[in-house]
Design a protein that fits this description.
By secondary structure, the protein is α/β, with parallel strands linked by helices. Helices cover 40% and strands 13% of the residues. The protein is built from nine helices and seven strands, in the order αβαβααβαβαβαβααβ. The chain has a seven-stranded mixed β-sheet, sandwiched between helices. The longest helix is centred in the first third of the chain and has 19 residues, at 74-92.
Length: 252
């Protein structure tokens, strides 16, 4: 199935006989879910977006990325980025969930087991039946979240799982293929979309979904500033998802 057909399948309205997908999107940072899944979120009001690395460092510091984003220090950055995220998710009708971990630029990354346990507890507080995880492309924080989700997948195999390709990071040649190979080694079958994939909960045309995503992306002004003009066009390209399933022998 081509990506064009996958994208088209996600635009078909859910019939009365199908359970409506209740999405839980795992977002490493404040912007990742919207940058990579914003059009899908636009079709799923009341989806949960769980930001993993949402806490400031204990001590004051300034990092190169926060400086590029226009902030004087990390605490100012986190305060502003929370507000940006609030505005973006409000535009898409999504509900926010935020974990208390710090991203790698603040030199305080959690263990994979700790992250997986906290994610499992957070998912359990929702009524989600469809979970979207990052493929873990390039960025250390994304890889860490991917590893934690891979631990959970066999334990939560009653959920429908999808991996999403992280915008911007997916442009690097070979990274998606390498990740698909890693999933295969773990006993996880990845297929591009599926007839029962994360289709829209409500009828909304593609043009409107793109418009809503573009508005939401613009809310992350600090991050767009840091990337620089012309370096984030991939955000507005077609979103790509992989349906993930675990073989019976790997289920827990």
């Amino acid at each position: 199935m081509t990506f064009a057909r996958v994208a088209a399948s996600c635009l078909q309205p859910v019939t009365m006989s199908e359970p409506s997908p209740r999405l839980f999107v795992v977002s490493p940072h404040f912007d990742d879910a919207v940058f990579s899944c914003g059009a899908l979120l636009a079709a799923h009001p009341e989806a949960w977006v769980c930001t993993v690395f949402a806490a400031p460092p204990e001590q004051e510091m300034q990092t190169e990325w926060d400086g590029k984003s226009g902030f004087a220090d990390a605490h100012e950055a986190i305060r502003a980025r929370r507000l940006e995220d609030d505005n973006a998710l409000r535009l898409l009708g999504a509900s926010k969930l935020r974990m208390t971990f710090r991203d790698s630029q603040y030199c305080d990354s959690p263990s994979i087991d700790m992250l997986a346990s906290a994610l499992e507890a957070t998912i359990a507080r929702t009524t989600a039946n469809t979970l979207l995880m990052p493929l873990g492309l390039r960025h250390d924080d994304h890889v860490r979240v991917y590893e934690a989700c891979c631990e959970l997948l066999p334990r939560l195999s009653h959920l429908t799982w999808f991996g999403y390709e992280e915008a911007i990071h997916r442009r690097t040649p070979g990274v998606v293929q390498a990740r698909l190979a890693d999933l295969a080694q773990r006993g996880v079958v990845a297929t591009p979309g599926s007839p029962g994939g994360p289709g829209p909960a409500h009828t909304i045309d593609e043009a409107r979904r793109r418009e809503l995503k573009r508005e939401a992306v613009q809310a992350y002004a600090s991050q767009l500033r840091a990337f620089g003009a012309g370096e984030y066009d991939d955000i507005f390209a077609t979103e790509r998802y992989w349906h993930l399933s675990v073989g019976r022998s790997n289920r827990k």
